[in-house]
Amino acid sequence: MKEITITIDGKKCKGFEGLTVLSIARNNGIDIPSLCYNGRVKVYGACGVCVVEMEGSPKLQRSCATVATDGAVYHTDTPRVKQARKVAFELIMSDHEGDCLPPCMLRCPANTNCQAYIKQIALGNDKEAVKIVKETNPLPASIGRVCPHPCEKDCRRQYVEEPLSIAFLKYFAADNDLFSGDTYVPEVAPDTGKRVGIIGGGPAGLTAAYFLRLAGHDVTVVDQMPHMGGMLRYGIPEYRLPKEGILQKEIDQIEKLGVTFINDYKIGRDTTFDDFRKYYDATLVAIGAWTPSSIGCPGEDAEGVYGGIDFLRGVIEGNAPDIGKNVAIVGGGNTAMDACRTSVRLGAENVYVIYRRTEAEMPAEKVEIKEAKEEGVQFKFLTNPAEIIAGPDGRVKQMKLQVMELGEPDESGRRKPVPVEGKFEILELDSVISAIGQRVDPKGMDGVALNKRGIIAADECTFRTNIPDVFAVGDATNKGASIAIEAIGEGQKAAKVIDSFLKGNEIPFSMPFLSKKDPKDIDFTQYKTEKRAEMPVREAAVRRRDFKEVNKGFDRDDAVKEALRCLECGCHDYGECELIKFAQREPELDPSRFAGEKHPRFKEQKLVCIERDQGKCMSCNLCVRVCDEEVGAGILGLVGRGFNTVIKPEFNDPKTIEKCLTCKACAEVCPTGALKIIG
Ligand code: SF4
Ligand code: SF4
Ligand code: SF4
């Protein structure tokens, strides 16, 4: 064969006469996207994504079907080519119906692969499950206990009966691994010689430290408190998260990787921010939000009024304040639940929760509200503090409550509480705990710019502050305090950005393009209902007297049964799928521009050892051609006409599949997840 030379994107490429532009490009290391081309069968030229521009030719050419001309000059990245390729992908994706990743994973702020770890639990592989969780979250036993599990809100199983118990399954596997005597420890990359300083050892700081250390950097975490853990340690009561038994054990695992921890160290007191950051190649500010928000009513400076987080921290440090017998907690979130249930355990007889809306609008987890009620907490819904009245000794004596009613929805979508004119109640009290939120105290972070609300301003994709080499994450930034898994998600993403920055090629965080399926398009009646596993808990009358853990944990039977409820929503082919691999390279893909009629879909049908999902088929015909040309069986064919054509056994004859050789060649060549090998 005669050797020829062509130029692709300025590179001289050697090939042979008769070869296509695509083959020569790929042989020379130039990756032109193509979906319907496969060296095993004849060229078909259906997908249209491999187009190139040839100098001197007015028309774009499909590189898979164009025989290269010696000396010709081709371009794969001109504006015309890019536009044509983008349109080709948008057309394919507009007619594609599949979930690349499971909805639980997408809803988790740390993007934990719940489907994958649940599968491992179902198979009895707890360590493998923990390994998967630790790809995104280094504190699975702690988070499995305390996370309000936003993932479960998007769990598809809810359309059958109830969502999976995703968080508690994590708790189950993580505990088994933690107490196995052979806890999973990931590998640390060789030392890079770069130093990272992290201010704050809460969930965000610890997570960033973990991932930066795994990337081979020399990481130091400083924290003003005597122990690491931040809000997980000082803001969550022992009965929800045992500190020495669980949290500290997980923190020890991070330290074992070689992260340096320095406690009782405060920026602005023990060193200046400038001196601190000068020592490091990158600094991450993860200081959290530790200042309780004020109630905003007259009398709140009376003795016996405590900030929620100060109160919880005091109890955890062994310095519980004297709250007396009658306590009111103001707020409706999880901190309010922690404060009221802690007050019960401190011996208060009348513990009230003052919340200005109704139970339905309470942001606290339902299980927390239920368990607080079981422990005797009294909820005063539709009331708001109007005044805290002190006695002659200056200590809280009473609270005047304004009675409220619900008006029109506000910007949060919840109905706005409005005062009922002239209607008040009086509560006799010994103390008041304000649990209506926390603010950031950025003192000491000299020069770091704040947003209008006085919170550290950090870019949401690069986590950069206004100071070069200073990054910031977690409760101290942007929108302020949130749940621990949000902080973990940010710590993990920021670690990747900082790692790329330290390696000289900063890559901002961005979510890749993904195909998502509308649950309305799924027939959930095909699944048998199975009851969600209940977390066994200690009796309310017993647990209200101590700080021992309330949850008892799943046993293996419960956990495996629960894990088997998973519908495995994410695509089995995500790691291999050519369609999504190339689609994700296209900037700003918008298939909705072509939303319209879709090809017929039929539910997965078994074809001997293959499961077919017509929603993911892009009619590239590769499976038909390989079965015909390479295997010689000719079992598959294009059935139907025009737009309604689908791939089925030849002539739509069910008997044809009896001739299947079970060679699985069709599934091997399928560029998408439309064909799944099941046997
Ligand atoms: S076939 Fe590819 S694009 Fe479709 S859902 Fe699966 S991974 Fe995503
Ligand atoms: S059914 Fe399984 S994969 Fe699907 S959303 Fe729920 S946990 Fe995730
Ligand atoms: S099922 Fe066949 S026609 Fe459909 S995408 Fe896969 S290989 Fe192409």
Description:
- The protein contains 21 helices and 25 strands.
- A hairpin with a 5-residue loop joins β16 (396-409) and β17.
- The strands form 7 sheets. It has a 5-stranded mixed β-sheet, with helices on both faces.
- By secondary structure, it is α/β, with parallel strands linked by helices.
- It is elongated and about 105 Å long.
- The structure holds iron/sulfur cluster (SF4) (3 copies).
- One iron/sulfur cluster (SF4) is lined by residues 617-623, 647, 669-670, 672, 674-675.
Short description:
The protein is elongated.
Helix and strand topology:
Blueprint: E1 3-8, E2 11-16, H1 21-27, E3 51-54, E4 60-62, E5 73-75, H2 79-94, H3 103-107, H4 114-122, H5 126-133, H6 140-146, H7 150-153, H8 166-178, E6 195-199, H9 203-214, E7 218-222, H10 231-234, H11 243-256, E8 260-262, H12 273-278, E9 282-285, E10 291-292, E11 305-307, H13 308-316, E12 326-330, H14 334-345, E13 350-355, H15 366-374, E14 378-381, E15 383-390, E16 396-409, E17 415-428, E18 431-434, E19 438-439, E20 470-472, H16 484-502, H17 540-543, H18 556-563, H19 578-583, E21 605-607, E22 610-612, H20 622-631, E23 636-639, E24 646-649, H21 665-669, E25 675-677
Parallel strand pairs: 1-5, 6-7, 6-9, 7-8, 9-20, 11-18, 12-13, 12-18, 13-14
Antiparallel strand pairs: 1-2, 3-4, 3-5, 10-19, 15-16, 16-17, 21-22, 22-25, 23-24
Helix pairs in contact: 4-5, 4-8, 4-18, 5-8, 6-8, 9-16, 13-14
The chain binds iron/sulfur cluster (SF4) (3 copies).
One iron/sulfur cluster is lined by residues 102-104, 114-115, 118, 155-157, 164, 166, 566-570.
